[in-house]
Amino acid sequence: MLAHRTLWFTKARLFDDPYEGFCQVEYSKILPPEAGPEWVTQEDGQGRTMMSVPRMLAGMSQRSATYFQNTREHLYVNSWCLADESMAMWEIYGSAGRGVAIQSSVERYKRAAKFTGIRPQQYAFDAVKYHGDLASCPELQLDLKSSIPMPGAGIWSKLLQLGFHKRVCFEHEKEWRAALYQDHREDDGCNIDFDMDELISAVFVGPRAASFLLDVVWSIMNRFQFDKPLDKSALLCSPFIKTIESS
Question: Which domain holds residue 111?
Answer without folding.
Answer: 7-34+47-232
